[in-house]
Structures are given as C-alpha cells and as structure tokens.
Amino acid sequence: MQEIINSYGIALAAFYLVITLPTVYIATKNEKKPFLLQWVTVIVLLPVIGVVSYLVTYFTRKKHKKQFEALLSNESDGKKSTDYISQKNALDMPQEVVTHILECLDIFEKEKDYLKPDITLTTLAETFDTDSRYLSKVIKAYKKKSFKAYLNILRIDYLVEKIRSGDNLRKYTSKAAARQLGFSSATSFSLAFLRRTGMYHYPFVEQFETDEEEEQWAF
Fold it and tell me: Mind listing the pLDDT tens digit for each residue in 6-48?
C-alpha cells in the first residue's frame, strides 16, 4: 500500500509539472529571468508536496485504523477456555506434573508475575519447582507458543488493556513502557508489540486516542 501511495504521489507531481512548467517557462523565457523560473518552480512544487504528504498520512492512518479495529475485534471474539486440566495429555510426562505446571502458569498469569524483569525459562521452572524441559513442553502444547513468545504476548496484552482503560501507561514512551513491562530494551519491546498488534507502540496509542476524540465529537 505504501508503495502504491508513493507511486501515485510521484505520478501526480510529474503530471502537475508537465502541465504547468511549459507555461511558466514560456512566460519567463522572453524576460530572460531564469531565477524567477526557479522560484516559480518551487512555488509550483509546494502544493504537490503538500498533497502527496497528505495522501501518505491519510492512507497510513487508515491502515493503522484497520489494524487497530482488527485487533480489538479479535479480542472481543472471546478467549479460549483455560480448562487445560481436562485436555488429553499427549506429552511424555506424568499427568500430575502437567497439572502442576498448568496450575502454576495460571497463578503466574493472574498475579502478573510476567511483568518481572529477567524472567527466563530456567528461573521460572525453578519457581514452579519443576524441570525446565517439562515447562517448555507444556507451554508449547497448551499455550501453542514458545516460552519467549508466550511471555511477550502476556506483557503486550497487559499493556493494550491498560491503554484501553486509560491507565497512565498510555503516556509512557516506548523505553519507559519496556522497562515497566520487564523487557530488556525498547527495541525488543517495540518488535514484540509489532508482532502482537501489527502496529508499533506509538501509532497504536495515537490511533486509540484519535478514536476516543472522534467518539466525543460524535456526541
């Protein structure tokens, strides 16, 4: 989409120049004022640049709005059942171990311990008093994610909910949000946010605030 917008803008600018510059050149040729021609050219280009910038901004925001609405729609469709205990244990480990790990993960999520920094598969397994290999297998089997992806999704979903509820986290920079959510860097946070929502952190917050303003004006 971005490439189409850029191509359209370039074509529009070229068309505008083809139409206007010959007239400008004829008008200034007899007067032999090339300097005037340069200035007129600049003046002619300014509205073209303005139109192109507007189109790029408009379509970019439209794209962000679609991604934003799609994300909210997916969340409102309902979450999968967390009754993992009743699922068939296809893992090569004792059922009581699987049950124990799932119960620990449930507490881990409810207590929001995933916001703590420096969490690793090994340290979490130690906290659960289990083997890290078992923990990894259970997360892959029941959460359908790797440990890292599982952890990042919990953190990003937490932030998205805070942004929607008007929490002060909405005002945080990417660096501050990354630190608050337990990420090791702003870069890792930004990439995780993009993978989860399809948008970067700042455009997401901006789109949410824009939608809120539109709803207020609607009333």
Answer: 444 555 555 555 455 555 455 555 555 555 556 556 566 667 6
The first and second tokens of residue 166, run together, are: 């008007």
Global pTM value: 0.64
Q: Which two tokens stand for residue 178?
A: 């990354």
Q: Which residues contact 121 (CB under 8 A, 6 or more apart)?
A: 132, 135, 136, 147
The token pair at 169 is 């986290």
Residue-wise pLDDT for 176-217, tens only, equals 999 999 999 999 999 999 999 999 999 998 887 886 666 655
Asked if 151 and 119 touch (Cβ cutoff 8 Å), the reply is yes
Helix (H/G/I), strand (E/B), else coil: 99: helix
Q: Residue type for 179, please?
A: R
Find, among 193, 190, 154, the residue nearest to 175 by Cα.
190
Q: Do the Cβ atoms of 52 and 2 come closer than 8 Å?
A: no
DSSP 199: S
Angle, CA of 14, 17 and 23, to the nearest 5°: 155
Give the integer Cα–Cα distance in Å for 214 and 207. 11
**CA–CA distance, 67 with 197 (Å, rounded to integer):** 7
